[in-house]
Amino acid sequence: MLIVMDAAATSEDVRRVVTTVQNLGLQAHPIPGAQRTAIGVTGNRGAVEAAAFENLPGVAEVIPVSAPYKLVSREAKRENTVVSVGGVPVGGQRIPVVAGPCAIESETQALETGRAVREAGASLYRGGAFKPRTSPYSFQGLGEEGLKILSKVRQETGLPIVTEVLDTETAELVAEHADCLQIGARNMQNFSLLRKVGRIRKPVLLKRGMSATIEELLLSAEYLLAEGNYDVILCERGVRTFADHTRNTLDLSAIPYVQRISHLPIMVDPSHGTGKRQKVLPLSRAAVAVGADGLLIEVHPHPEEALSDGPQALLPDMFSELMRQIRNLAGVVGRSA
Amino acid sequence: MLIVMDAAATSEDVRRVVTTVQNLGLQAHPIPGAQRTAIGVTGNRGAVEAAAFENLPGVAEVIPVSAPYKLVSREAKRENTVVSVGGVPVGGQRIPVVAGPCAIESETQALETGRAVREAGASLYRGGAFKPRTSPYSFQGLGEEGLKILSKVRQETGLPIVTEVLDTETAELVAEHADCLQIGARNMQNFSLLRKVGRIRKPVLLKRGMSATIEELLLSAEYLLAEGNYDVILCERGVRTFADHTRNTLDLSAIPYVQRISHLPIMVDPSHGTGKRQKVLPLSRAAVAVGADGLLIEVHPHPEEALSDGPQALLPDMFSELMRQIRNLAGVVGRSA
Amino acid sequence: MLIVMDAAATSEDVRRVVTTVQNLGLQAHPIPGAQRTAIGVTGNRGAVEAAAFENLPGVAEVIPVSAPYKLVSREAKRENTVVSVGGVPVGGQRIPVVAGPCAIESETQALETGRAVREAGASLYRGGAFKPRTSPYSFQGLGEEGLKILSKVRQETGLPIVTEVLDTETAELVAEHADCLQIGARNMQNFSLLRKVGRIRKPVLLKRGMSATIEELLLSAEYLLAEGNYDVILCERGVRTFADHTRNTLDLSAIPYVQRISHLPIMVDPSHGTGKRQKVLPLSRAAVAVGADGLLIEVHPHPEEALSDGPQALLPDMFSELMRQIRNLAGVVGRSA
Amino acid sequence: MLIVMDAAATSEDVRRVVTTVQNLGLQAHPIPGAQRTAIGVTGNRGAVEAAAFENLPGVAEVIPVSAPYKLVSREAKRENTVVSVGGVPVGGQRIPVVAGPCAIESETQALETGRAVREAGASLYRGGAFKPRTSPYSFQGLGEEGLKILSKVRQETGLPIVTEVLDTETAELVAEHADCLQIGARNMQNFSLLRKVGRIRKPVLLKRGMSATIEELLLSAEYLLAEGNYDVILCERGVRTFADHTRNTLDLSAIPYVQRISHLPIMVDPSHGTGKRQKVLPLSRAAVAVGADGLLIEVHPHPEEALSDGPQALLPDMFSELMRQIRNLAGVVGRSA
């Protein structure tokens, strides 16, 4: 249920509604908008009586929500959410590019890449310290050492850090070093991790699962918001299909679809989405053209030596060319990059 | 096998190689390029002796082709193929837009749409006279009457006509009225139809099947070229996956992939690719940005009355807006529209 | 629309209803059942007035059909359809096994296989004279020569013949030699071919398309019935998914689903469904256990020399073992084989 | 790498090899077989010198393993693994059936179901205390209270308990009450959970992810074995495809495929695999016929009141009928149930 407040409602009015909701044993989620505040009500198993709220002062409307997601929906909040990642806005007019290696392998590699992507125009740095690997015998990341290297990269380049959080045990450790916690495709329905990260209150980058519907993606985001973390960025990274010419099939139609029904920003990861270096540039252009709110690009100074996902990493000069093309395109669709 | 001729080879040299191929009971397919001619050899079940050709005058190189497709491959022809559809080049610098209703329903509807799309900047007209329908009880198209209406549309608007050919019986009839024969997704592996259309020698628009790999798409094109019809345009129109927020999942990564391994132009059909009016505009932008050689767009003046696929047809003024945006984007990727 | 007649309705009553339907410009399809006759009405674009029929003598009920398929549905006919293929019933208590090579390669190969499968207990013989091949350069079948060999196989072994019909041009030729016309997965939505075969009135084996839903399969069958051919056998042969350990993913849940909503028999083809010899036996057992009305099995005396699909063909003694296991299983599920 | 010992090797020989492996900084995993012991070597990033082991006493052969999985492969262990779940063998001649409700809702519901399924012949009890739910607003299970109820069910019925473990935090708590820890499809690649459960050393039931390949499933199992937990049961529960007549597409070909390349037992869950009550019985029969090592069946005394997955739960008398049919079938394939 959504309780929409009058444009003229006072903060006292909002507080009163919140208290009334809580007195019924339910949770209230005030979502302030530009014009007016909506209050999401969760925790009810069946229908809640609208009558309990309709006549409270300042209440404009009580909307029973039919969609299974509530807090992430446009019904709950008309305006786009803009998430600030270490000061860089995601979801606004500008299209930030998150760039860096798949995995942090050494301080040298991390810093070299960091300088290169900052120079080319990236606004955020990505790099994995904890890596989810299909095989137990593959390189699993440097762990805490990798996190410390990430902190140095931020210090030296000024780029805020996006890095993956793999489990509840290491979530707080990662949060100490990261500006944005990435939840990977394989963990999109790791509900315990979602709840944990929802309580940490750092911005979250939530990737679509390999065979997740958009409804499932939004419901996983709803887990985060329901815990009180509203700084959620979604990410399309390709889905698994029969098609074998790319590693995954990048589903760009997800972008306008999500943007119509949700207020959350959504990025595109063409590196994982295609798994092939030569496809990253054209699909980055397509992502910007379709309206994506950001890009995630894997860059590695020596991809042939990469411990993880080398074949999809761009060389620094390919990344510069990508940034150049993206900037031109962004202007045409009314944005900047 | 591919026999690549010297840049200095004479037409007499080419003829001699062709005769030698034919004397071995095989087919020769001379493919003239800007610099030099290649001759595809087909019809062999096993390996062919390269020795039979290597020493003929004018032969530069004999390449055993490992890919299952030969004539459609970049190995056979380095330069992009540009197909002329009634004088409109497809595959060149300019990105033609093919627009019109899913099905021809009446002369009034067809002409009204034709005038509207021409005015907005479409270069080709599309409309179905013979419609492949999942149910035997759905509207199957006006048939020959529809073809005659299409001829009138060309006469009145000057736009060349693209229309679907459903079977071998009506292929020649359709060819009398059409400038380009469309082979639909359901018929991509209707090999008898491919052979028939390969012999008709009108340009062909070949759509990717609902669950076809790129290799299968190229092999279906190979059927056309092997019959001697080199004027083939490919088309990505979405594939079938688990994702349920669109009718099909538009696989834009297919565009750069095809362009790397084949010389044939490839278009995108975002109307069928998404099945939803609101997705057509953003995905058309994405298609141009990714490098598509053309767009197929369904336009209907009264979509709510359409006998087929109304929900995905654009209104004429939405189409004008699409053309405006496409033109701006095309410039940024070094093309025009 | 379905018009259900009284159990006591006379054939005169049925005739009167048929005439009334036809006078309205529609088609009537009388479907005799054990207890009573239903008359399917097709050809209407919108709703038909039930009133025109309700008061005719012998009419028990007029049912507006909501499902897009009518004649193939259980609503139209309660009892299972039993199709006689050259005297062998398909859809009854006994589970017929159709066996033979993928392609007819020579008289020797065809007859050798025919004798072996008859001896092992097959009731029908399969073998392709016209082969749909992904590549134009693959063996396309012996054509008419293959059909003549098939006639000899029937003569010598007594087994009725199931063989594929590829196009409308050769449909009648194939029908002269075959007892059952197979429509392959790639042609499931070749609507011109469906209509043609619907008019030929030989039993048809209709295979599910590579990515066809069950509704689409039933609607393709509806094309056949709507032309007056009621002798239709459906066939599950695997669908295309991301899974790469088999050539296709055999969807055995389709069997009980189809049997609940349609009266048509449905077979399983585990040879194409898996593409691997070692999977054919266990999945044949599973097919019988799930309730399939028959099996299609590829058998080749020398699979390593097969011109098509060798890796999935069983050797004759593996086929004997399959028949032995199938017979045991059939008994447990109340059938025989 | 696999080090295969002589049939005549002594336990002293085995110990010596293990020590040699460990002295190189690697892990040794002795896998005793009926005839002889194999020792899996893991922890190496590149190739390990075979020479270091070949000449040790008792070593028959050193096999560099090419498959990405080692410990789960048939190369590592020829004989089938038989896992004992609270005394019930899984992977042997007998086919155990695990039955119970999707979620534990109350002591009454849990016990009523437990008595019913034991009486019908189930050997193990299943029921969720911690439930992974797509929506944060759905019933999430009774948690620890549910676990205590499960302990009572075991006490009263004598049936060992299979229940899902959702995260690392509650893994040990669940292990106190359960005889077998189920890892659900959504957690198949939750590598932290796999490692944790690998260290707990209770039998594990590992379900195939919604779009996991068999290689990925086996690599997830490898995580468990690499931690020292060899009591792993795999489970096919349907994969996500375009097909919409069932909730998932049950991929029964996975069973013989897994059994050929791995020594681990594999069960089938037709309840989740189809999502529809009416399909559970025929697909259970198919699972037994294809060679499954066990079945997971959801049973609920009042499915219409179930808090989770009601539409796929069997009523107790339907389950009795299932057991009856399964027992008959098992005999035919050389097993018992």
Q: What can you see in these coordinates?
A:
Four copies of one chain form a homotetramer. The first copy, chain A, is of the alpha/beta class and 337 residues long. Chain A folds into two domains: 2-63, Phospho-2-dehydro-3-deoxyheptonate aldolase, domain 1 (Alpha-Beta Plaits, 2-Layer Sandwich), CATH 3.30.70.1140; 83-332, TIM Barrel, CATH 3.20.20.70. Helix content of chain A is 36%, strand content 17%. Chain A has helices at residues 11-23, 51-54, 107-120, 144-157, 168-177, 191-200, 214-226, 254-261, 270-274, 277-290, 316-332; strands spanning 2-5, 27-32, 37-42, 59-63, 83-85, 88-90, 97-100, 124-126, 161-164, 180-183, 204-207, 232-236, 266-268, 295-298. In chain A, the strands form three sheets. In chain A, strands 13-12-11-10-9-8-7-14 form an eight-stranded parallel sheet. The first copy, chain A, has a four-stranded antiparallel sheet with strand order 2-3-1-4, with helices on one face. In chain A, strands 5-6 form a two-stranded antiparallel ribbon. In chain A, strand 11, helix 7 (214-226) and strand 12 form a beta-alpha-beta unit. The longest helix of chain A is centred in the last third of the chain and has 17 residues, at 316-332. The mean pLDDT of chain A is 92. Chains in contact: A-B, A-C, A-D, B-C, B-D, C-D. At the C-D interface, helix 8, helix 10 and helix 11 of C face helix 8, helix 10 and helix 11 of D.
**On the 0-100 scale, what is the average pLDDT of chain A?**
92
**How many strands, which pairing sense, and closed or not: the largest β-sheet of chain A?**
8 strands, parallel
What portion of the residues of chain A fall into strands of 2 or more residues? 15-25%
Uncertain segments of chain A: none
Question: Strand pairing plus helix content of chain A: what structural class?
Answer: alpha/beta
Number of strands of chain A: 14
Proper CATH architecture of the largest domain in chain A: Alpha-Beta Barrel
Largest interface, counted with CB-CB under 8 A? A-B, 40 and 40 residues
Output the CATH topology of the largest domain in chain A: TIM Barrel
